[in-house]
Structures are given as C-alpha cells and as structure tokens.
Amino acid sequence: MIDYKAKPFYLSDEDIAWVEQTRSAMTTEEKIGQLFCLTDIITDPEQLQTLVRTYHPGGFMYRAGNGEDIQRAYQAMQSASKVPMLLPCNLESGGNGISPAGTFFGRPLQVAATGDPGQARRLGLVCAREGGGVGCNWAYAPIIDIDFNWRNPITNVRTFGSDPDTVLAMATAFLEGVRESGFPMAVCIKHFPGDGVDERDHHLMPTVNSLGVQEWMDSYGRVYQSLIDQGAQTVMAGHILQPALERLINPDIRDEDMLPASQSKAMLTGMLRQRMGFNGLITTDATPMVGFSALQSRADAIRSAIMAGADMLVFCKNIDEDYDAVRQGLASGAVTMERLDEAVSRQLALKASLGLHRSAMPDCRNLHWLGCEEHAQWARECADQAITLVKDNQHLLPLSPDRTPRVRLTVLGEGQTGGFGESGTVASALKTALEQAGFTVSLYDYATMEHGEIFTAGVADLKAKFDLSIVAANVSTASNYTTRRLDWIPLMAANEPWYGKDIPTLFLSFCNPYHMVDVPYISTFVNCYSSSSFCVEAVVDKLLGKSEFSGRSPVDPWCGMWGAKFM
Predict the structure, then answer these.
(1) Where are the domain boundaries for CATH 3.40.50.1700 in the chain?
(2) So what's the architecture of 379-543 in CATH?
(3) Which residue in the list 147, 201, 285, 311 is annotated as catalytic?
(4) What region does 371 belong to: left with phi over 0, alpha with psi -120 to 50, or beta?
(5) pLDDT digit of tens for each residue in the chain (567 aa)?
(6) What CATH topology corresponds to 13-368?
(7) Which residues, at least 6 apart from 469, have a Cβ–Cβ distance to it below 8 Å?
(8) Which end of the chain has less Cβ packing within 10 Å, N or C?
C-alpha cells in the first residue's frame, strides 16, 4: 500500500491524480519498460529517441562524460518519452561523477576525515548542483555502507568510515546539502542491507553481511532507519545476503533458499517496507553484476527482484531477453500485474515528488555549476582539513630542499581505474609541485632503469642518486577487483623502498587508508583519501610545513599490523 501523501513523496491531490491517470493510460509493455533503468555510451539524439520510443525505460544512466553532450542526450530522451525519466548518476564524490569537468570534491572518507559535517553538506550541495546542472535528477548517493573490514576492496574510501555515528552524521548532512541545492534531485541510500562486513565485491559474487540481528540494528539498521525517517526517497538493494535478518522475517527458511537482498522478499518487503516503514522507491544495484544472477537463472533473478519489492532494475545484460523475462513472468503468474502496477506507481510518485511531471527538461543555463570556482575553493578547504599524518617516527617533516634536494618519486597504481569514473592521476602534479618548491625530482621508471640497480647496486649507489624517497600510492577503490593492495615490480620488487632505513622515505596514499598492511616499515605515512588535484596541492603544503595536519582518520589505518606504530 503506497501512501502518496506521506514521506518521502508528499504528493498533492493533483499530483496523485497524475500518477493514477498516467499509470492507467500505460500499456503493459510500457509498464514493463518503466521497471528498467538503462545505460549506454551513445549520445546521438536520434538513436536515443529511438531507444526510448522502443523500450519505454523508466530511467537512463550515464557514466562520467562530456557535460554538454550528456545534457543534450537527456533533453532528447525526455522529449521522446511519454513519461518523464529518472536520470541517475553516481554522485558520490562531486560533480566528477557526471563529467570530468565537474568538481572532484573528495571521496566520502576524505570528507569524514575533516570531522566536519559541514563538509558533507557541501559535498551534497556540489553533487546536486553539478549533477542537476547537467540534467541528472537522481543521485545514487550517499553511500551509507560501514567500512568494518579493511580488506573489502570496494567500500573503503567510498564510505564515511567505520563508525556508525560518523556515517549517520555525514550522510544526514549530505541530504541537507542536496535539499539546499534547489535542483529536483532524489537521493538513494545504498547498498542495503549494508556492505563492508566481508571482504568481497558483489560485482563478482553474492556477498554476505554476517552481523547478528542486534549488531545490525545497532549499526546499519540505525543508520538506515534514521535516513528513512528523514525522508530519503530511494534505497538501493545490494546483491548482499543477510542471513540473520532473513531468518528473523522467515524463521523456517533454509540456508540454501536465501537470496541476496536485491531478490529477497524478506529483506525488501519484510524489513524495508514493513518493519522499517520505508514508503519510497526501491531499486536494485546493477543487475549485470555477477552477484545478481549467481544463485538463480537470470530470468528468475529478474522476476524474483520484482516480486520481492524492487520497483526498478538497474541496467540490462540483453535488453530484449530481460524484458522478455518479465513478459513470461506475467504470462506464467511468476510476476503479478498487481506488483507491476505498484512498482510503476512508486516510480511515478517519485517523479511527481520531484516535479518532473511539470518540468523535466534539463536547462543548458545550469551548466555553469559544473566545476565552478566556488566549488573548487570548497574542495581546497576540504582537502586541507582532511589530510592525515598517521605517523612520522623518523621526524622527517617538514621537508626542505636544503636538506634533501634530490627526490626519487615512485608512483604506484596510476592508470588502474574502476567503474566509477572518479579517479585522478597524481604523478605529474606531485612532481611539478615538489619541483616548484625547489626539489629536483626524478620519477621512478622501470623501463629506463639499469639492471645494475636491481641486481648489484648498494646503498651508496642510491645515495649518489637521491636524498629522499617518496612513494605515492594511487591504487583507487574500484569495482570488479578482489583486492586493492600494493603491487611491486615482480622482478626483485625493484621499486619497493628496501633502503628506507638508509635513505629517508615517506609514504603518501591518495586513495586507500589501509596501505599500512603492505608498508608498515615506512616510518612516515600520510593518508590523503582522494587523488584530486586539491589533495596533491594540500599535501605538498603540509609536507613543507606551510600548513598543519588536521585530519583525523575515520577508520583504523593500522590494519592490526604488529609493530606498525613504532617502525
């Protein structure tokens, strides 16, 4: 039962009439189309209009691309669609989620490291202004996963940390920022029932949130319930099992019959709808992820997700096959028309709550928000407040070109990107900034190394080349990886700083606060959390003593490594 007048929709009688009349006028084929949020890289208006008129999708998502091209594509799709479309984006770290020209404000963990919810409010404001300026109306954010397990390869800096109170405070502020933006932008809290407990990525397999009922209620449950009560419009269900909650709702269920939350009626209807009182729209995470279809045939997984309570399915593998899975489900009774109508109604209610039934066309005049100077200045301030000195046991800081004029800079992970389109490069910017400060900087380049350095060079040989070693890791959190660790050159780990007790060495991490597990012996260690140009600029100032380190780690950076604190 949908309460259109209650949170998060708050529809008027006129809005409700539009929802009901629009749904009633739809054919079954059009209703099936509304279940799907499609994606593609094409931006040609004619191709997109043909796609929309053929498949009637409820939404369409782009990864980061040219802002002007994406806005024109949105305009073409909205003009071709009988029903206004939801246009989501992963607006997790700033406007760079929709366009490289957008502001890379900072990964959520960076924002949390400031200790200031006001920075999270700014993050939400930047995401909504810049995403809304391009034409997005649905932020797949904030992420409210809790980073309990440092080995998890995908939560990490995408979260606000490992403390539920911090996650809740920052996510609440993010919501406030989105609402202050003035753009029609729905938020999506994700990934229900909560990622970050085990050490796997549900892009690659179904994963498990193994907390007991009370543990879950005190952590994830408390965060979800609060944000639902605050009016979060949508929830994204992950391909994550939660056995304790499944059994709470259905005590007789067998282990082998449990399904990921994205397909579980106990999780979506029993927990979210009935116990937590969520009245908004439920969407699955991306259905091409292996975690979605690993436990059932793809057609059965699609039908299960709909009947479990999902109102939208994100992406297709083969669009015709996936649509046909719903058609066959309706024919066989595996999918009911009642559930289809409910899903379509919640979508329409969300669209009406955003005012899309009155005006859905993106306005080209709003593109000025993308990468604007105000947002850049905010990002500089956030970086300055966030960067964290974890240890400096060798009392190396501040650096000075008078003491250590020649620097060897080794950059790890550059160019290894994931599916989020938000990673920056640091090697060139870091080298330039250090050179401008008076250092002579040589980038470690294995291709030009003499084999003698690998096999026979000693400490004296290296001291003849450089006075200071800086190892910078840009190993970004990303989808479809089993681990995000440091990888050295296989041949004798040639680029690993084995000489760290003979030549001063410091470690800078730009994308992962947990690299201590791989370099506990490096005595000076700094976490930057994001690979933005703002973080490079800020960390160099701090290394030189021009500004103080003020960030506080939102997670445990020591990873339980014996001796790391005193090495």
Answers:
(1) 379-543
(2) 3-Layer(aba) Sandwich (3.40)
(3) 285
(4) left
(5) 899 999 999 999 999 999 999 999 999 999 999 999 999 999 999 999 999 999 999 999 999 999 999 999 999 999 999 999 999 999 999 999 999 999 999 999 999 999 999 999 999 999 999 999 999 999 999 999 999 999 999 999 999 999 999 999 999 999 999 999 999 999 999 999 999 999 999 999 999 999 999 999 999 999 999 999 999 999 999 999 999 999 999 999 999 999 999 999 999 999 999 999 999 999 999 999 999 999 999 999 999 999 999 999 999 999 999 999 999 999 999 999 999 999 999 999 999 999 999 999 999 999 999 999 999 999 999 999 999 999 999 999 999 999 999 999 999 998 655 545 456 789 999 999 999 999 999 999 877 777 778 888 899 999 999 999 999 999 988 899 999 999 998 888 989 999 999 999 999 999 999 999 999 999 999 999 999 999 999 999 999 999 999 999 999 999 999 999 999
(6) TIM Barrel (3.20.20)
(7) 407, 408, 410, 497, 499, 500, 503, 504, 505, 506
(8) N
Residue 150 amino acid letter: W
Span(s) in the chain for CATH 3.20.20.300:
13-368
Classify 388 as helix, strand or coil: strand
Q: What is the pTM of this model?
A: 0.97
| Residues counted in the chain | 567
3-state class (DSSP) for residue 312: strand
